[in-house]
Amino acid sequence: MSVQSIVTEGGEELVILSRRAYDALLARAGDEEAEDRITALLAKEHLTARAAGDVAYAPDWLTAAVLAGESLLAATRRHAGLALDDLAAKVGVPSEALAAMETGARDGSPAVIAAIAQACGVDPVLLQDQDPPSATPRRRSTRHR
C-alpha cells in the first residue's frame, strides 16, 4: 500500500491513500458499500487477468486440500494416486528431496516442478509460486504454510 502524508501549517498530519487502499480500509472496518466497491474492483481485475490468460484455476480438490493445510505438491501427488517413492522415481529425484519439497523445507527447481506436474497430470502453473496481479494479501506457493 502506498501511503503519503503531509503536514498542515497547523502541524496536523494528513494521510493520503489511494481509493483502493481507502476502500479496503473501510471494508475491513465493516463499511458494506466500500466492501462492494472492493469486491467489484477485484472481480474486474480477475476477469481482466483471466482474459489475458494470467490466471490459473485450481481444481476443487486442490483448493480443499490446501485449505485443510496440505501443501500443493503433496495434495497433487495424492490426487494422482502416487506414493512419494513412485513420484520421486518418475521425476528422477530422491524421495527425501521430494518429501522436503512437499513440506516446504526445500524448493524445487522449475524443471522439477514441471516434471511433477506432468507426472501428476496437472497444469504446471498450479504448482509454481505466483503473486497475483492485484495487491491482495494472498500468495500461492508450493510451500506448506
Outline:
The protein is about 50% helix and about 5% strand.
Protein model, in words:
InterPro entries: Cro/C1-type_HTH (IPR001387), Lambda_DNA-bd_dom_sf (IPR010982). Residues 73-127 form the HTH cro/C1-type domain. This is HTH cro/C1-type domain-containing protein. The chain has 145 residues and is mainly alpha-helical. The chain has two domains: 3-51, no CATH class; 60-127, 434 Repressor (Amino-terminal Domain) (Orthogonal Bundle). It has helices at 19-28, 32-51, 60-67, 72-79, 84-91, 95-103, 110-120, and strands spanning 3-7, 13-17. Strands 1-2 form a two-stranded antiparallel sheet. Strand 1 and strand 2 (13-17) form a beta hairpin. Helix 5 crosses helix 7. The radius of gyration is 21 Å and the shape is elongated.
Question: Which keywords apply here?
Answer:
145 residues, mainly alpha, 434 Repressor (Amino-terminal Domain), two-stranded antiparallel ribbon, Cro/C1-type_HTH
Summarize the SSE layout with pairings.
Elements: E1 3-7, E2 13-17, H1 19-28, H2 32-51, H3 60-67, H4 72-79, H5 84-91, H6 95-103, H7 110-120
Antiparallel strand pairs: 1-2
Helix pairs in contact: 1-2, 3-4, 5-6, 5-7
Domain HTH cro/C1-type: 73-127
Pfam families: HTH_31
Organism: Methylobacterium indicum
Note the quaternary state here: single chain
Q: What does the largest sheet look like? A: 2 strands, antiparallel
Structural class: mainly alpha
**Total number of strands:** 2
Unreliably modeled segments: 130-145
CATH topology of the largest domain: 434 Repressor (Amino-terminal Domain)
